[in-house]
């Protein structure tokens, strides 16, 4: 039996212990633990990697602390637009949505796109119409309202500035994305990513999270990856797929390939953030070049932990 492994992230950036109250730190840790439990319990019961990553990301989307689903940030027009993607490493099938509104769990919509639409990515009104025809759960605007997110938007509203972070104060810069990667007992792997994007974003901006190969990638022959960081640079770097390429064509291990992309390639491009990944043997890596990354891992080799800071 392969090593069953689940890794998750809730965003990366300038996350410093001195800027975190004990109560807030505990809330973030509990959110990560809840997501790990939601996904890993499915693996324990013989569930698939796809089921596990979807369940873990749904849990994070339902938590208002994370910039995805319920906790999504406000765009320049006061709306909350969400992006998500999911990929199955066993068959290279993928689904993604961008610019959707009022969808409770965008990752579930991305999964339905993968399974039922015949397409890979749907956007905006078309994606919302497909969600309605597929019975995807929606919520009113009030469900997605967070005073913290609203206050962040107020700081930059009326300007052309868009903030990549949970908190627009530079001292507490956090790239708001959530994601998961998993390996099941059959050696199949999968990854999923979800985000509310940038505070005060304009012109229908789309980051790396819904883009297969940039923010999400999964291939049983190499790895499953979910990214979080400065989306524009992750897109230019084709970050998630580059890890797979380094493993496939240069024979690197998962850890070596992720280190190369995150700690070398992205740094040279001034791309801050990180990624999580697994391979088909259940090996895992969680790598970031920022001060911190909300992250967690659980496997059947006795590893179960969540972390926030670099050390």
Automatic annotation (TrEMBL):
Domain of life: Bacteria
Gene3D superfamilies from the UniProt entry: (Glycosyl)asparaginase
Xref: Pfam families: Asparaginase_2
InterPro entries: Ntn_hydrolases_N (IPR029055), Peptidase_T2 (IPR000246)
PANTHER family: L-ASPARAGINASE, N(4)-(BETA-N-ACETYLGLUCOSAMINYL)-L-ASPARAGINASE
Designated name of the protein: Isoaspartyl peptidase/L-asparaginase
Organism: Terrimonas ginsenosidimutans
């Amino acid at each position: 039996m392969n090593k069953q492994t689940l890794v998750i992230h809730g965003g990366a950036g300038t996350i410093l212990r001195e800027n975190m109250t004990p109560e807030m730190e505990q809330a973030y840790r509990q959110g990560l633990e809840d997501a790990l439990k939601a996904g890993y319990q499915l693996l324990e019961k013989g569930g698939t990697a796809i089921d596990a990553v979807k369940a873990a990301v749904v849990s994070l989307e339902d938590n208002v602390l994370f910039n995805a689903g319920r906790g999504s940030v406000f765009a320049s027009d006061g709306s909350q637009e969400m992006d998500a993607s999911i990929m199955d490493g066993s068959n290279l099938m993928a689904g993604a949505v961008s610019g959707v509104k009022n969808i409770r769990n965008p990752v579930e919509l991305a999964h339905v796109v993968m399974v039922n639409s015949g397409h890979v990515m749907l956007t905006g009104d078309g994606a919302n119409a497909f969600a309605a025809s597929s019975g995807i759960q929606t919520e009113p605007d009030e469900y997605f309202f967070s005073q913290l997110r609203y206050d962040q938007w107020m700081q930059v509203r009326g300007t052309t500035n868009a903030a990549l972070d949970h908190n627009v104060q530079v001292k507490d810069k956090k790239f708001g994305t959530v994601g998961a990667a998993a390996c099941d007992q059959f050696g199949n792997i999968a990854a999923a990513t979800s985000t509310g994007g940038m505070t005060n974003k304009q012109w229908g901006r789309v980051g790396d999270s819904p883009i297969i190969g940039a923010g999400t990638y999964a291939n049983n022959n190499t790895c499953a990856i979910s990214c979080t960081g400065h989306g524009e640079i992750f897109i230019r770097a084709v970050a998630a797929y580059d890890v797979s390429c380094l493993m496939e064509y240069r024979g690197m291990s998962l850890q070596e390939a992720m280190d190369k992309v995150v700690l070398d390639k992205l740094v040279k491009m001034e791309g801050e953030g990180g990624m999580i990944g697994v391979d088909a043997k259940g090996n895992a890596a969680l790598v970031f070049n920022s001060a911190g990354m909300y992250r967690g891992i659980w496997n059947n080799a006795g590893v179960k932990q969540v972390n926030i800071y670099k050390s």
